[in-house]
Amino acid sequence: xxxxxxxxxxxxxxxxxxxxxNLQVNEGEIHAIMGPNGTGKSTLAAAITGREGYEITKGxxxxxxxxxxxxxxxKRANEGVFLSFQYPVEIPGVSMTNFMRTALNxxxxxxxxxxxxxxxFLKMMEEKKKLVEITAKLTNRSVNEGFSGGxxxxxxxxxxAMLEPTLAILDETDSGLDIDALKVVAKGVNTxxxxxxxxxxxxxxxxxxxFIVPDFVHVMYKGKIVKSGGKGLALELEEHGYDWVKxxxxxE
Amino acid sequence: xxxxxxxTPLQExxxxxxxxxxxxxxxxxxxxxxxxxxxxxxxxxxxxxxxEKWRNTDMSGWYQKPFLPETINEEFxxxxxxxxxxTVQGFDSNVISVLNGHYYSPEEKKLQQxxxxxxxxxxxxxxxxxxxxxxKYYGKIADTETNGMTAINxxxxxxxxxIYIPDNVVVEKPVQLxxxxxxxxxxxxxxxxxxxxxxxxxTFLHCDDSINHDDSFINTLTEVQLGExxxxxxxxxxxxxxxxxxxxxxxxxxxxxxxxxVNVLTFNGxxxxxxxxxxxxxxxxxxxxxxxxxxxxxxxxxxxxxxxxNAPHCNSxxxxxxxxxxxxxxxxxxxxxxxxxxxxxxxxxxxxxxLMTSTAKINTMPFLEIYADDVQCSxxxxxxxxxxxxxxxxxxxGIPFDDARMLLMFxxxxxxxxxxxxxxxxxxxxxxxxxxxxxELSICDRCVLHCTIPDKPIEFDIDLSKI
Lengths: 252, 467
Fold this sequence. Notes:
Largest interface: A-B, 30 and 23 residues
CATH topology of chain A: Rossmann fold
Helix content of chain B: 10-25%
Number of domains of chain A: 1
Structural class of chain A: alpha/beta
Shape of chain A: globular
Distance between the termini of chain B: 47 Å
Number of strands of chain A: 12
CATH architecture of chain A: 3-Layer(aba) Sandwich
Order of helices and strands of chain B: HHHHEEEEHHHEEEEEEEEEEEEEEEEHHH
Order of helices and strands of chain A: EEEHEEHEEHHEHEHEEEHH
Oligomer: heterodimer
CATH superfamily of chain A: P-loop containing nucleotide triphosphate hydrolases
Radius of gyration of chain A: 18 Å
């Protein structure tokens, strides 16, 4: 099993957001996590990636057989955990090239591999750019600075392609995307999909799941999974909305 | 006012010294200027915190120290390189130096005139040999009435650098001034005069460095005249020890279509105050003034930028950025004045700061005085910490905390260092910035320049764990 989350409780500033969350993810699987706003979907992503301020008060995140609760974000990343941000951050003054090379070499350093040669790196950049149909030159552009909403999301998938993670979490990657951009993003994910990799797709709408077909769909509400099922569950949610979830699980 | 004025040991010494020096100076206009300046100084005294422009820079501690207002004219016995070795790979410049307040060179090179008419050398000597330039330009911009530091400098400064670039001369090779002090306890008043003829171009590096950890008080004044369509690139590099106070006053008169670019790069120093007074006097003149400061411990940096738009169709921009650690203090005051008939003025100003601790402090204040109606002016100031969102973003991609923070700080300062147009100089400065941010820079990395001196390195660290 690649990821095993057991009875996870996470609090922000003392307020509990995740309240006994459980999830098992195997290599090769795509899991969709759906649910109304404010149920803790993004908190889950933050907890898995080790973001500061998200305190695990109970439970365990087991990744590749190890409890990673105390791992730093960079260690998790270098062990193959990747997050496609809901709101990618603009970093003026740090060029995409420098950023990606630093990140790649950090990973290589962590794994005890030699640094990547400049030529090899640039070739890889060009190749991966094509995958997500980024035509702009990235060399002199600062990270996400001046990128449109769609470009930012494509850029996340581009980075994912560069870093080749084992576990990728896509946090509302579909939000703010038009149908063409959505297809590009989905194509990127589908190309990277393999038996050794797993995806957790966090989304509010079913739309993305037409293009990235999940093996499992989980409905999250009030900090935990309240219902799991196959692909069909997403369609059901699309049809009936989340009101029934609220009705069923609204009261403790 | 006189009777109530509190005095200080330094002020007493300066007055005593000035009384002797000024009365014995030879006749002529300079002598008159000095006497007038001394009278002003008697009125104003040394600047203090009660003055608006000195409100956030407290000099009182420095005034109590027993500095001697004397310069020492060293005989040229050693090459500057032997005192202070500078080996900048690939950076081709003509190096001149001022040691303990005097132009330091062999006698025959004290004042040189080159084939193209360029004159470079000792101010004291030039004053004797080229009085015509002094009559016309010396003490003409620097205001001795309101600024005590300018007044005392004008009254007692004897030497410094004189540079004259004739009309239509483009000086390809930058001139690098290395200013050093190797005697303890001196209060040095040095003076520079730089004249650029019309259509001339010149690049000047003004480096203030320390050679040891002795205390000193440096009060430098530079007057620059830019002729029509002249272009000056000025770099100020400051890497002095924590026991030194450096006051750096620069005045610029700019004629029609002249261009001025200034980069003030402050890496270290006990107390540093840079005043830039820029007068855009001719139509179409343009001034770009940039600054970077990286301070820690109890260091103090004060940048005062005064831009006077006295003519129409002039552009000015100011961008000053700084990182302050520990209990360091920073001050930025940006004054923009637009005269009534200075229409079509573009004047922009920005100051951004990162404070790494809760005890570091910056006072930043824009001051706009606009009398014309068809102008574009803007100003902005920010004070913040390293962006935690960005930090997490970088770490999520596998970049460790320290490296991520370094990347962000380096990105923050890149906006300034990217303005450095001399490639080799930029590489050197980038390297110095990195070292400074990592806490690896010492005053042994002097100047631009990977200079090495065998004696003790000391650390100036910015503690990265504190962001």
